[in-house]
Amino acid sequence: MDSILITGAASGIGLATARRFHTNGWRVGLLDVNEGALQAVHAELGERCWYQRLDVTDMSQCEAAVAAFAESAGGRLDVLFNSAGVLRMGHFEDLSAEQHRFTLDVNVAGTLQMCLAALPYLKQS
Fold this sequence. Notes:
alpha/beta, Rossmann fold, 4 helices, globular
C-alpha cells in the first residue's frame, strides 16, 4: 500500500491532502503541533491512518516521527508532503525578530529537517 506522511495535517492544505490521499486508498501519516486537532482528523479518517504530534523545529522529533510512521507502514514512505507553516501578519518593522525567526524556523528549517529525516526512507521505498 502506498504511504504518505503529511506535516501540518490538522488543518488547511495539509488536511485537504490527507483526506484526498486517504480517499484514494493510501496509508496516511498525520503530523501537526496541534494534537487535539490531529486526534479529530484521525477519528474522521479511521483505518489506514496514523498520527503523531510533531514540532517541525525539533530535528530529533522529525527523525523519530518519520521512523515511527515508516515502521507502521511496513518500512515504506512513498511521499513526504511538507505543509506545516505559520504566517505572521503585520508590517515588517512591527514584527519582532523572534516572530521573524519563528516563521523561518517552521517554514524553512522545518521543511528542510523533514526532508533530511525522510530521505533515507524515500530512497528505500
